[in-house]
Amino acid sequence: MERPGGPIRGADGRMIGRVSRIELDETRLRVRGEIDAPQIALETSGGRIAADRPEGRDGPMVFDLVLPRAAPGAGDEGRAGSRRGARLRVAGAPDHALRLPSPAGIVAGQALAFAGGLVRLVPALAGWARTGDDRHRATVKRVLGLVPRSPFGPLDQVRDPGTGPDPGTGPGTGPCPGPGAATIVLPVHDGFDLLPDCLDRVERGTDVAARLVLIEDGSRDPRVRPWLRDRAEALRTAGWTVDLIEPATNLGFVGAVNLGLAAARAAAPDDPVILLNSDALVPAGWTSRLLAPLADPGVASVTPMSNDSEITTVPLICTRADLPEGAAEAIDAEARHLDALAAVAPMPTGVGFCMALAPVFLARVPQLDTAFGRGYGEEVDWCQKTRALGGRHLGTAALFVEHRGGASFGSEEKTRLIRANNARIAERYPAYDTEVQRFIRTDPLRAPRLALGMAWAGAVAGDRPVPLYLAHSLGGGAEHWLERRIAEDLEDGLPSTVLRVGGEARWQLELHTARGVTGGTADGIEPVARMLDALPRRRIVYSCGVGDADPLALPDILLDLRRPGDGLEVLLHDWLPVSPSYTLLDRDGTWRGPVDAGRTDLAHRARRPDGSRVSLSEWQAAWGRLLSAADRVRLFSESGRGVLATAFPGLDSDRVEVRPHPIDAGLLAALRVDPLPGAEAPPVLGVIGNLNAHKGAAVVAALGSRARSGPGRVVVLGQVDPACPMPRAVRVHGGYRVEELPDLVRRHGITHWLLPAIWPETFSYAVHEALATGLPVLAFDLGAQGLAVRDAPNGHPLPFGPGTDPVAEILAALAPAPARPEEDPAQDGEAGAESGDGD
Fold first, then answer.
1. How far apart, in whole angstroms, are the C-alpha atoms of residue 317 and residue 306?
2. Given CA atoms 659, 663, 665, 671 in this order, what sign does their dihedral have?
3. Do 170 and 286 touch, CB atoms closer than 8 A?
4. 763 and 649 share one domain
5. Quick check: is 616 in a domain?
6. From 755's CA, which of 17, 141, 215, 453 has a CA 20 to 30 Å away?
7. pTM
8. Same domain, yes or no: 330 and 195
9. Residue 126: inside a domain, yes or no?
10. What's 620's domain CATH number?
11. Is 469 helix (H, G, I), strand (E, B) or coil?
């Protein structure tokens, strides 16, 4: 349970604070807010925790109090949320009771929501009962919250379609006026190779009147100090105000920054200060964009996005990304397109590689704490102190600054400092790590981070187009193909994007990198299209759209996303482009051959979300536009050519390619098994793969019902759809790994394989795996599975059609061959002689 709190009042009724958020779960109670009091404590029957205002400071403090929940039966709080079970005790004020709903109340509310969802789902439930169409089931699961929740949150509209501001060219120039002036504090210790580039960019890219404070902190490299003196003089000649401070001994990062802060405040106490590392490479127009959020008097610090800046890192949060030449400029160009308001979010801390500090908060906390030695954690400490004074810390995606971290001090030393100073932060601010983890989990900068991530992907790809796959959320063979394709892209140094349908929201946009995946969800296509605009070139690949709420719209959406020069490929993992019945089965679950526009069966009609009906001819016309525009239409079996040609007779056959899925030859060789002894025993049918209606569940159930008089036992290696109950004679093994097949054959005594699918599959991994074992493989003679068994020496294609009995065909195939009649030796002396010799 999460809910907002409310005001906290003193003895005179005046508001002295506010509870901003209350969170309650099975293990803890958490209360957050602000209070103008020397102490506040959270008390329950499970314990007490207090927060004290820092000594010597006045005004409100931010509190974040967490207590474990008491066990059931331990007083009011043990009854999980009694209204009297938790209170805030405030020094000099009455207790503030926290009004927490009981678990029964929470469950009742959820039950009502569930019941309301069922009422709204009556049409979908009826459609599922009538047709068994997976799209109805997907709707039911989505509305009831039974689909896996997306790991990504919703995307906001963050990209401004305009051109963005002109970056400006130098100090005090350009159309982005920003603050009147600022002081840039730049400590230097070694890192000579990056130093010229760093200062060149500062000189070229600063677009406000700026003072530069350089601290040469006892570099070991003898080139640094004389070069820095010369450069400081050249900058002064160019019109800059430059202070160069040269301490006699090395002070460490914190000491050097404190010298710079003191100099900045002495010269211009009312100007904001920017802390900048010497390994940070700023773009054009950087200062006005970084300083703009400081116009809010409550903002204490602002941090830009970067490729290496902890919680403001692009494309993956807290995951460093090295950049190829020119990538930073391309990403920052996208940052200028972002809506300045939507691209800003509050953070638990700033990141000190490039951080703007507000003068009003610098006046109250003018120095970094020297306890943090040579660096790391000092900016967290400053941010926590100013936060207790009411300051807020913002991240902005309207600016991207490249950070080549580790140049100031070595990576090994940085790791050691991180470890030691993290412990110091945890001791001083116990709630800080929880806040950071919550920020990472919820990521309020998700949408702009993904927008910049798209620009990163385009820059990393260079001249190559970035793949954009349209995929579903249902798993299966199409998902296996997609996983392999993405892995191949990444091995080739190419990030991939996936636009997924059929999940919690209609659209889920994913960015796949070698270090992980990020993404976001949206109900409308507009924010997704805006994100994809950051890709200079893309190759659109339709993989599978089954499960989408409105599949008829997919072709035109993909065509709208395609820009001049973009590639377009259509893959037929199923037959959704041919018919709303993507298995091509009629309403009674029967395959009656390829489907043309004249098929009138109701299974080949659709209903759109607005209730309008769609005929098969309208459906095929929409998908035909996509197929005709594609550079390539890919089938995975020759068996699909006739199906495709029947539905789309005008499609250019030269652009239709048949290329089966690759299967690891070594894996197939390892699946070979020796025939089991005991040929007189009843055969045992092994069924490979998950079963549902179109995968032949009814056939398997009928076989199980005839087990005593039929083939013997039936074993399903996979899961069975709960809508298709199996008789007890059918053993359901559950999930398996392909390499386990030989062991499973021996364990269950499998003598034959059965592929019972009753629709023309576009490709079947299972049939190739079964054939590789060497055991006899039975499959109905339709689609890719029929073609595969026809071409294999151990394959047994079975007749299939409206006039056949599938179970009878299977039993006939399993029946022992009739004994050959004895031959008359008189008819064939040679045969008789051989017979005699054999006896």
1. 10
2. negative
3. no
4. no
5. yes
6. 141
7. 0.78
8. yes
9. no
10. 3.40.50
11. strand
